[in-house]
Amino acid sequence: MAMKPAGGMKRNFVFKRAKKKRCKLCTAGKDTVDYKDVDFLRGFITERGKIIPRRVTGNCAKHQRTVTRTVKKSREAGVLPFTAE
Asked: Which residue in 38, 51, 67, 83 has the most C-beta neighbors within 10 A?
């Protein structure tokens, strides 16, 4: 026979809502990203060289496409590496 918790205690779990992520480019008022701006682009790639997805960065769809194109252009120009060593 299973024992019931004394006093009929219930467990109530409260989930906190995460703060809504904002697009860095929309808040800064930027429309374009320069492919030579390595410090800014490093915020959108992992240490392994992969582009971070939109759901993680909080970018809007328009600016995520812009960032992706710019990162790829920067890789072709030799400013950013394709992969980590």
From this structure: 67
- Supply the DSSP symbol for 6: G
Residue 78: DSSP 8-state: T
Torsion-angle region of residue 29: left (phi > 0), alpha (psi -120 to 50) or beta?
left
Nearest to 24 by CA among 73, 60, 56: 60
Biggest CA pair distance of the chain: 71
**DSSP assignment of 21-54:** P--HHHHHT-S---TT-HHHHGGGB-TTSPBPPH
pLDDT for 6-63, tens place per residue? 666 667 778 787 777 889 899 989 888 999 999 999 999 999 999 999 999 999 999 9
Q: What does the alpha-carbon distance between residue 19 and residue 16 come to, in Å, rounded to a whole number?
A: 9
Nearest to 63 by CA among 37, 79, 44, 46: 44
